[in-house]
Amino acid sequence: MYRKIKAFLMEFDVLLFMAIIFLKVISLNYSLNLMQNADKTLVEGIMGSVFVAGALLLLFNGKSRYKAFIILDILISLLVLIDVVYNRYFMDVTSVALIYQAKITGEVKDSVKALLHLEDLKYIIDIIIFIPLYFILRNRIGVIKTSGWKKRFAMMMIFIAAGYTLSYSSVKALNRDQPDILKTMYDKKYVVSKIGGINFHIYDFYRYITDRVLNAEKLSDSDKRMIKEWFNNRNSVTAKNYSGMMKGKNLIVVQLEAFQGFVLNRSINGQEITPNLNKLSKESLVFDNYFYQTAWGGTSDAEFLSNVSLLPAREGSVYYQYAGNTYDSLISELKNQGYYTSVMHANRPGFWNRANMYKSLGFDSFVNENNYVKDDIQGLGLSDKSFFRQSVEKIKEYKQPFYTFMITLSSHFPYKDENNKIKDILNVGEFEGTTMGDYLKAVKYTDEAIGEFVDALKASGLWNNSVVVFYGDHSAIPFEKRDQLAKLLYNKEDLTPLEWFNAQKVVMMMHFPGEEFKGHNSMIAGQMDLYPTLANLFGVDAKYALGRDLLNSNSGFSMVREGNWIHDNVVYLKSTDKVYDINTGKELNKNDYIKDFELVYTYLKYSDAVIEHNLIKYFEGK
Ligand code: GP9
Ligand code: MN
């Protein structure tokens, strides 16, 4: 009898092991509620990792095979279980960068017991059976006679090749379907839904090791002190105008999805695209030359630039790779002044790793998709109208003073109007059916939502004791569709590099109680200038800001990671590698602007150093 079992076990255990791992990894996707995305790609991805796991087991023979089976099984089950539990708390899967985040693990540790459910037993039930079975049987069946090493080695190679091929095909399909998702990891759960949990963790681990360990540049203590000095000198200007003028007022900052600057005060076929914002602009301080500075991290970069005043990450996104850092932010500074701080966005909390990053940024609460009634859908999710309506109800209850940061969603690329709800909102004429046409309608819709939002704030009495800021996060019309931009802006076929550059501005206006500041400020500015500008008005310091206080500077500047920069009327374009006068379009001598290039380089270097070496923690001795 035992001999029969032994014969049967020959390599059969590897298949059993693979089947168990397959079931565990796929049930992770069930637990995370991701099965609506399941397709061939997912099965390939999971099978790929299962083959590699099988190959690992084949490494062992004899007595160690039992142990290897159990140990590998425990490790993989643990990985799956961590994700299941982590998801109950953070509504996301974990990643190496986050495990190092003592703050979060500490917090989770306390609640792990509460987060473990009885049903989680299914992930370890086999282990509960196998361990005692191993002790009962080990003396009876002795050593499992596995195949000879040559055969095992050949099998291992085949398994690894199969594993690699399947996983590769799955990753490739994901990349085709969502380009850049692996680079920025804007939706970790989506990645898991397409390539499986094990592949995701292997990729995440690989990224962490290559980016953060192997390629990490060393920074000496004297370098760190020097950087601190640089920020000190930069941000310790004393005599400033308007300091603390808005102290004690509430602050509401609304980041508008893809609100490119050209929509403001523009009409199409006799209709205003943004009548509500246009009206508001007359009572507000409007920045006409406000450039977005985002990179791979899109919306999340805009949030980061505006609240932290540092540049986006070298590659990928700060929100994914550096969510565990200590930050100095508009949020943390206002919180120190006794402000209640909240962020509101009606999307999944794991998107852009927000749930984690918002904790590090210091928000008291993150009002997300799960806190809204999904009573009206437009674009990617809850409609902006419903979002604002429900948000005002929540804000009304806040302890004052508060800072609330709101992020809209309806005007997100590709501006589809699935249920034809806004088909007739704007007559876009020749742009009907184009990206531009769809975009303008989406903008008009969000503008209506803004109008209702302002009315609701007025009705609640909050309008008069709050500073309310509206700005756009990044571009809306991709470079490949610039002909549509050329048509709308200049009624021509294409844009020159300078014209394209000039269009990369976003809407920016600030409304002050009693309209203390209003009119137009045409100085060149960028998103990293928001925090220092508001910090001065609210009487707090922005010690480690890279941006400038726009109400206390008289020279314009903006730059983006990719290399373009603009200093007053001088602009450098990476695409042509030339320097121009922005007003005349005349080419200037690049060598005359070495200082500007050096400054841009310094900004990039110090911003990266602060982010990659978690320097705020070091500066503040936290
Ligand atoms: C999703 C939203 C979109 O929550 O903020 O991000 P984006 O794709 O614009 O970077
Ligand atoms: Mn966006």
TrEMBL record:
Stretches of the chain forming a coiled coil according to its record: none
Q: In which pathway does it act?
A: Cell wall biogenesis; lipoteichoic acid biosynthesis
Keyword terms of this UniProt record: Cell membrane, Manganese, Membrane, Metal-binding, Transferase, Transmembrane, Transmembrane helix
Which GO MF terms does the UniProt record name?
Answer: metal ion binding; transferase activity
Per the similarity annotation, which family is this?
Answer: Belongs to the LTA synthase family.
Describe the location of the Sulfatase N-terminal domain by residue ranges. 249-540
Q: Note the topology in the membrane.
A: Multi-pass membrane protein
Q: What's a GO cellular component annotated to this UniProt protein?
A: plasma membrane
Entries under SUPFAM superfamilies matching the protein = Alkaline phosphatase-like
List residues traversing the bilayer. Answer: 12-30, 42-61, 68-86, 123-141, 153-171
Where located? Cell membrane
Q: What is its main location?
A: membrane
| Catalytic site positions | T299
Superkingdom: Bacteria
Query: Which residues are Mn(2+)-binding?
Result: E257, T299, D473, H474
Q: Give residues annotated as binding substrate.
A: H412
Q: What is this protein called?
A: Phosphoglycerol transferase MdoB-like AlkP superfamily enzyme
